[in-house]
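Illustration: Histidinol-phosphatase.
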Amino acid sequence: MPWSHHSHSGQFCGHATNTLEEVVQTAVHKGMTTLCLTEHIARAEEDFYPEEAEHHTQASLAKLYDSFYHEARRLQKAYASQITIFVGFEAEWIREGSLTIIQELLATYPVDLFVGSVHHVHTIPIDYDHDFYYKARDVAGGSDERIFEDYFDAQLAMLQALKPPVVGHFDLIRLKSDEPDRSFKTWPGVWRKIVRNLEFAASYGGVLELNSSSLRKGMKECYPQVEVMETYHSMDGRFTLSDDSHGVDQVCLNYGKVADCVRRAGMTELWRLVPSGDDGSAFDSRFPTVRWSATKLVDMTMKD
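Result:
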């Protein structure tokens, strides 16, 4: 009975594969009980990825999200007897203007949730490839330590502005770094910023996703690292589960390894979205259709 609160499809994302319905069908086939469809939002043209710049404008990306939203709602109804589907988006925090884009999207579409993510530092992508990462690192001061500090400062700005219900891949910054499995605690300045961000997320009830995509990219632990999980857990912070899939071959991938990280962090339960009429903790007036509900880890089937 696994879940995912963060997913993509090739139908609506240029760096993914498969149709949205194929992703849903695969989730059903694998026994998933909750699936959140969270496609990327439109961005200003100055923030396009290389593959988007050749084929899109900001208006066409906005139209793509509109098409996604309506298709996702269709699938939500069509597969209601087989899986609980929620519809939202992944909000990307790049610059101050990102806030306006996200606010307009929330005003236009009655979504069930959104994932708040940071993929850029100093407006430069930090997870696209090493060349972009090194460029951003140079702007930050030339070291992983400096760009990590700047990343978590950008993340705090995102958290404060948006208070996202789901905090996406909390420590994504380590993906292209020289030592992606390094303990954050070896850099006291970085660790202080991490704790600060966790404290803020806990203060408004933000739920951190345990994102398995880091494992398929060669890292030893999910996003976030176990030491971050332990710290947020000590603040009574809550966690959910995401595969951040970009195609059917990644649905539910490496969930057994995520479960190992959860146990190492001393956690015994995870949280999932349920319809607001079901039992669960109070959520957020912005999202009246859903609540969070706890599930004991022993009651979950999580395997690779």
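Reading the tokens back as a structure: The chain has a mean pLDDT of 93.
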